[in-house]
Structures are given as structure tokens and as C-alpha cells.
Amino acid sequence: MVNDWRRVIECLNQVVVESNPNNEPVTIYGAVEGLRCIGVGTDAAVFQSPYALDYAFKVYATDRQEKASIEASIYAQLGASRYFPKCYADYETFLVLSYEHGMTLFDCILQGVSIPKQVMEDVEHARAHVREQGLNPRDIHLKNILLQDGRAKIIDVSEYGLSGNDYRWEHIKKAYDEHYHLIAGRPVPFWIMETVRKWYNNRNKRFSSFEDFIESVLKFTSYKKDKEE
User: Fold this and answer.
1) Which of 67, 143, 146, 173 is most buried, judging by how many CB atoms fall within 10 Å of its CB?
2) How is domain 103-216 classified at the CATH fold level?
3) Are 224 and 216 in contact (CB under 8 A)?
């Protein structure tokens, strides 16, 4: 039967996901015919199968598997919302989620696909919904927001049970409002995106403030642009 996620469980058990230091994406070991990786993060990898096209399978790294049940409980607390996927099942080491089409905002910038202001507004509404459910909307960044039919879909809620503000979304919003017009509709090379990502992850060691970080990024990209011309 097509779209029966139970047919995929045996395939998922043949894949091993391992975490990496320094907040780098996970590594996947093992390849199973018909199982396609559609995304990687620092804690898990996400797969899709032709046997269950309406579902996505989030497989946690071997040392992060306790997060599966935590994230499942967060989905349950969030309830039905157009801003988040649905969680259908928790198998302790992986979750069964609704498959969500669309490009991440990270890929939009790489490919020069314009990000409409509506996406920013949607994320603000999604964050308000999260707070209304007694949760904390953190760890919202370019790789876990999808551009879906001109709207936003947030595809990772695993940290909403933690306290504190990591300011990732506030920084993205500020950069979008003040500087996105400089690159809107223009592809940005992957190596530049990766350099900026690594700088941001180490910003507290390298820069005195977020404004200092942004100023350095603008100088860096302007310099590279001038050199290329």
C-alpha cells in the first residue's frame, strides 16, 4: 500500500545517523534503496520513501535519540497549526511527520529565490502561537523555515521546551529588514553562505556585537564581489 509508513520502518533501521562536534550536520551511514535523505541537521536526518510519500521520517543521531520523544511531546502541545508539520508517530529513535514541500530559506538565498515579507510575518505569528501554548520559540533559522506557496512552514520544534532566547530569529529578521534588499533575487555562492554561517556560530568569540558581525559580513561580501568583477 502506498503511503503506509509501517513499510518504511525496516529500511530506517538499516540507517545509522551520527552527530558531529562543533554544531556541524550529522553524518549518515548506510544506504537503502528507495530511502532518500531530504535534509540534515545537527541532531537528526530526515528521509522520504516512495512507499509513504506523504510522510517524512526524522531519524535522530545515536547520541541524541532521547530528543525524539521530547520533540513528539512538543508537537502534541503545539496542536494543529498551519505553521508546523503534523507528528503522526514516535518510534523512540525517529518521528513520523507530514512531508512538507518547499525550499528552505537557506536554499532560497543560494538560488536567488526571493523571500517575500509574508514569510517573515508568518514566522512572527508562529512564534506567538508557540508562546500561547506555553512553549519557547527558539532555534528558528534559515535551514528550518520552508518557503511553501509563498508562506512559511517551520520544520523543527525540538528546542521549544528549552528556556532562554538564542536570538537567531531576531537576528534573521533584523538582517532581512535592513539588508536583504542587497541580495534579493540574486544567488549567493555556497562558500559565502558557509563562511557567514560559521562566523555567526562563533560570533561571541569573533565579534563584539551582532552589529559588528553584520558590518564584517557586508565588508567581506563587498570585497569578494569587487574582486570577482
Assistant:
1) 146
2) Transferase(Phosphotransferase); domain 1 (1.10.510)
3) no
**DSSP per-residue string spanning 76-114:** HHH-S-TTS--EEEE-SSEEEEE---SEEHHHHHHHT--
Q: Where along the chain do its domains lie? A: 5-98, 103-216
Residue 84: C-alpha distances to residues 14, 69, 76, 100 (Å): 28, 17, 11, 9
pLDDT, tens digit, 9 for 90 and up, residues 163-208: 999 999 999 999 999 999 999 999 999 999 999 988 998 888 888 8
Query: 10 burial class (0-12, 13-18, 19+ CB within 10 angstroms)?
Result: exposed
The tens digit of pLDDT for each residue in 79-97 reads 999 999 999 999 989 999 9
Q: Which three cell numbers stand for residue 153?
A: 512552514
Residue 162's φ and ψ, nearest 5 degrees, are -90, 160
* pTM of the shown model: 0.87
CATH 3.30.200.20 fits 5-98, yes or no: yes
